[in-house]
Each structure stands twice: as C-alpha cells, then as structure tokens.
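Priority: medium. Attachment 1 of 2:
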C-alpha cells in the first residue's frame, strides 16, 4: 500500500509536471497550424474561387438529402427492394451522424476561427460551434454510405471527390479549422461504417 502511495506521489511530483507542458505545447502547435492554414488560404482567395466554394458549401445539404430520396424514388419506380433498403441505410447514417455531430459541438464548444483569431477573415460568419465540421461530416457520411452500398469506382470516386471538396470549401471560406474538417470526415465515415448491416443485398 505504501509503495503504491509513493509511486503515485512520484508520478505527481516528477512526471506530470513534465508531461503537462508537453501536452499544452502540442495543443499550441496544432492550434498554430490550424490558424496558419486558414490565414494562408484567405490570402489566395479570388472572386471566382470564392463563388465556386460557396456553391459547393451551400448545396451540400441538397446532395445529402437528394441521394437517399433519389434511391428511394428509383427503388419504388423499379420495384427494387435493395435500392429502397440502401435509401434507408444512407438516411439512417446521416441521422446518426447529425445527432453525434450536434452532441460533440455542444460538448466541445470550440469557437469559430474568425471569433478566436482576428487575423482569420471568413467569407461569411455562421453561428453554432466549430468542432467538428457538420458540412464535412454529412458529406462524408453520404459518400461512405453510398460507396458501401455500391462499391464501384464510378460511385466511390465522385462521392469522395464531392465530400473532399465540401471539406476544403469550409477551410477556404474560413469557417472551420483543418482539425474540425478532419474530425468531421472521420465522424461521417464512422457513422456510415457503423450501420453497414442496413445495406441492401
């Protein structure tokens, strides 16, 4: 019992004072990276590129709703049970992802980049919190679920090209950090993977 007490005391006195500053330094470096990426991107903006990335970002929800609705409609028209099941799979993945994204945002409460650093200029200023990127998580949920349901290169390639474009648009517009986008991609893909059993045969 005494040896356990002394071991914990040694950890507290000698190890934690070394580890804690290293953790804080790593977090600081990551934040510097996040900030610098957005500052650099803001310096490369042009009206044409801004228009393209605003279009992508603004139409993300239409794509995420349109995919399961399109699958359901095609499944009903063609009397295709597998397609109707895949519509349910994509929609369910999106619902689970939306729930977790909202929950994490409420727990983490990370401020938007333009609120945390005056050097970061956003194209527009959305509300809510920054971590994780909701646009990115929903785009990657849809891309992953669609690719799981139809594992063909001509489905996978455009799906993930779109999802990646959505993620990059959030960086370019200055409304999310790179770590927000990365977390959103992982969360979105994970939501779809977790419900793979719902795929149509």
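Attachment 2 of 2:
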């Amino acid at each position: 019992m005494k040896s356990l007490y002394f071991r914990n005391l040694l950890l507290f006195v000698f190890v934690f004072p070394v580890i804690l500053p290293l953790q804080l330094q790593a977090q600081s470096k990551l934040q510097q990276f996040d900030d610098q990426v957005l500052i650099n991107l803001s310096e490369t903006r042009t009206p044409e590129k801004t228009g393209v990335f605003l279009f992508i970002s603004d139409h993300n929800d239409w794509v995420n709703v349109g995919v399961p609705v399109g699958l359901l409609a095609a499944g009903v028209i063609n009397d295709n049970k597998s397609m109707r099941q895949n519509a349910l799979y994509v929609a369910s993945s999106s619902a689970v992802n939306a729930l977790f994204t909202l929950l994490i945002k409420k727990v983490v409460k990370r401020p938007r980049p333009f609120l945390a650093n005056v050097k970061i200029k956003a194209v527009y200023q959305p509300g809510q919190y920054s971590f994780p990127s909701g646009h990115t998580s929903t785009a990657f949920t849809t891309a992953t679920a669609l690719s799981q349901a139809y594992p063909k290169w001509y489905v996978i390639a455009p799906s993930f090209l779109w999802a990646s474009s959505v993620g990059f648009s959030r960086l370019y517009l200055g409304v999310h950090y790179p770590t927000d986008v990365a977390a959103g991609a992982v969360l979105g893909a994970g939501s779809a993977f977790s419900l793979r059993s719902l795929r149509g045969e």
